[in-house]
Design brief:
The protein is of the alpha+beta class. Helices cover 26% and strands 29% of the residues. The strands form eight sheets. Strands 3, 7, 8, 9, 10, 11, 12, 21 and 24 form a nine-stranded mixed sheet that branches. A five-stranded mixed sheet has the order 16-14-15-17-20, with helices on both faces. The chain has a five-stranded mixed sheet with strand order 28-27-29-30-31, sandwiched between helices. α12 links the parallel β27 (481-485) and β28 (511-514). α2 (44-63) crosses α11 (453-463) and α12 runs parallel beside α14. It starts with 20 loop residues before the first helix and ends in a 10-residue tail after the last helix. The structure holds adenosine-5'-triphosphate (ATP) and magnesium ion (MG). Residues 209, 415, 418 line the site of magnesium ion.
């Protein structure tokens, strides 16, 4: 493609709404285009990279027996009522009505639709296993769309669903998809880590997230360098500290005045103790299916711990959107809590959920449910009991690994894909059964497997850029090579650039010829910004058929003959792509 003919608009300025390098660079290169918050379009260069990611995904999915189909984005509410998710999915589900008042949603994911296919089409064990997938635009009305393609309201996802006879079959399908994901993200040039994950609104028992390593990612993961434990912080089990005493050590409770000490740090400092000798209260209200206030919940963790919201939600068995921080005044009237001074003793008409660690900690300081007062020597069993005792705390750097006890590390990453063992959750809810060898009716075992195609694009840019622009891995670069023609008025230069361009095209290299009537500085800047892996500069040495050859990823410039540069470029493209990273191949 000649840049003189190409629809291309790059930006010198950093767009004001963008913070992350990937967001800034995808906008500055003109690869993506914002329409409204969380809604982006793809321009020619951007769409080429998207299609290359899709191509990699198709190749790897097909290699594992996946069969591609394409379902509609519009889904009828009835299917979601059947699975129970019309309510459970909450406000992220983009709902709409047709002219007759019938309810629909724009699919955020397609478990219901694929289960519906299975129940209609699969009747016999002879039809199993099967794996169906699609690459399609998804809709989620995210509370806070941000970071460009990372968290958008419309995005491209690959979603796959496996159908098996039994758990063993599901495990085999899951392993295949796991391997396909490793291949896909490796081919996209990502450094990533599969980690155990919570299964969230999708449901099911077992799940892994594929996390692209990045300091700006929204996923937090814990991992152990000794035993290979790796899990999202939402999911990672946290080990209780050893008990600090026995019942014989219980001292009498005592109220103490602690004026203005609303935070744990204030209380601990005021009393001259460490935060682990205190307990922290977090107050919530839950809602029922009709959106009415249901229950007040007081959650307690040791003062030095952070509450893990996912663990609390799982313990309560409610969807994420059905819980909020309580209005302290309203909660106080009903339960006897006092904002900033809430403790477990004497609370009433609310659900008390306690971190498991608290049951073994002796003589803690808690709120006294009295303005400006705390209570010393509060002990589980003697002074209060919880309705639920469960691990509620968030694992943090240096805490013991839940598997082996070694101190864990914590890092950030971008969730680019997730795989789930759904088991029979959807097939039982929706009646997707098959007849086994003995004509017995059994539920189909399902798995589901998602990849954020457009988020993957952003994650690649996040991992591959420098101050000047993107540095595309060959596999998903919009073009492999750019020929920068320094002076488009110089005949020798023009003719050599044209010759190289033709030769590379004939060799199948995806090549750009920058033949624009621009200053060389502008052309070099754009080439760096766009991040094309190979640059061949045709300048003053053109009369001698010599050019400058440079890779975007390093600073080494080599003077080569035109023929050497052509051969070098073609060889590199083939080496780095197994001959597969061509849009048309
Ligand atoms: P998150 O926790 O980031 O909200 P999720 O766990 O809800 O994501 P899944 O339901 O597992 O997402 O969807 C499969 C994949 O789709 C994710 O791994 C991610 O790559 C991508 N994805 C999900 N939400 C978005 C979004 N709002 N914008 C872009 N990609 C997304
Ligand atoms: Mg996920």
């Amino acid at each position: 493609m000649r840049l003189s003919e190409m629809h291309l608009k790059t930006l010198r300025e950093v767009p004001s709404e963008a913070e992350l390098p990937s967001h800034i660079l995808l906008l500055r290169t003109g690869m993506i285009r914002k329409l409204v918050s969380g809604v982006y379009g793809f321009m020619n260069m951007g769409y080429r990279s998207v299609r290359k990611i899709e191509k990699i995904i198709r190749e790897e999915m097909d290699a594992k027996g996946g069969q591609e189909i394409l379902m509609s984005a519009i889904q009828p509410a009835e299917l979601w009522e059947e699975s129970g998710r019309w309510y459970a999915y909450g406000p992220e589900l983009w709902r709409l009505k047709d002219r007759n008042g019938r309810e629909f949603c724009l699919g955020p994911t397609h478990e219901e639709i694929f289960t519906d296919i299975a129940r209609a089409d699969i009747t016999s064990h002879r039809q199993l296993p099967v794996n169906l997938y699609q690459i399609q635009t998804k809709y989620r009305d995210e509370a806070r769309p941000r970071f460009g393609l990372m968290r958008s309201r419309e995005f491209i996802m690959k979603d796959a669903y496996s159908f098996d006879k039994d758990e063993e079959g599901l495990n085999a399908s899951y392993r295949k998809m796991f391997k396909a994901y490793e291949n896909i993200f490796t081919r996209c040039g990502l450094k990533f880590r599969p980690v155990e994950a919570d299964s969230g609104a999708i449901g099911g028992s077992n799940s892994h997230e594929f996390t692209a390593i990045s300091e700006v990612g929204e996923s937090e993961i814990a991992y152990c360098e000794k035993c290979n434990m790796a899990a999202t912080l939402e999911r990672a089990g946290a080990v209780d500290s050893p008990p600090t005493g026995n019942e014989e050590d219980f001292l009498p409770m005592e109220d103490i005045i602690t004026p203005g000490t609303k935070t744990i740090e204030d209380v601990a400092e005021y009393l001259g103790i460490t935060p682990d000798k205190t307990m922290k209260a977090l107050l919530f209200v839950t809602y029922d299916e009709d959106g009415r206030e249901d229950k007040y919940v007081a959650a307690f963790v040791r003062g030095d711990r952070e509450l893990n919201m996912t663990k609390l939600i799982n313990a309560l068995g409610i969807p994420e959107h059905a819980i909020e921080f309580a209005d302290e005044k309203k909660m106080a009237e009903i339960t006897g809590s006092v904002g900033g001074f809430t403790g477990p003793v004497g609370l009433h008409d609310c659900l008390i959920v306690c971190d498991s660690e608290l049951t073994g900690q002796v003589n803690l300081v808690a709120g006294a449910n009295k303005e400006n007062y705390h209570r010393k020597n509060v002990n589980y069993g003697r002074d209060y009991k919880a309705d639920i005792v469960v691990d509620l705390k968030t694992l943090k750097e240096g805490d013991p690994c839940p598997e082996c006890g070694n101190p864990v590390k914590v890092a950030r990453g971008i969730e680019v894909g997730q795989v789930f063992k759904l088991g029979t959750k959807y097939s039982e809810a929706m009646g997707a059964n098959y007849k086994d060898e003995n004509q017995l009716e059994k539920p189909i075992y399902m798995g589901c497997y998602g990849i954020g195609v457009t988020r993957t694009l952003a994650a690649v840019v996040e991992q591959h850029h420098d101050k000047d622009g993107i540095i595309w891995p060959m596999s998903i670069a919009p073009y492999h090579c750019i020929i920068t023609l320094v002076n488009s008025k110089d005949e020798a230069q023009c003719s050599l650039a044209e010759q190289i361009y033709e030769s590379l095209l004939n060799l199948g290299v995806e090549v750009l010829l920058d033949d624009r009537k621009e200053r060389p500085g502008v052309k070099f800047k754009d080439a760096d910004l766009l991040g094309i892996p190979i640059r061949i500069t045709v300048g003053k040495l053109a009369a001698d058929r010599q050019v400058e050859y440079k890779l975007r990823r390093d600073d080494i410039k080599t003077v080569l003959s035109a023929e050497e540069a052509i051969a070098g470029a073609a060889q590199l493209v083939n080496e780095e792509s197994d001959g597969r990273c061509f849009l048309t191949a």
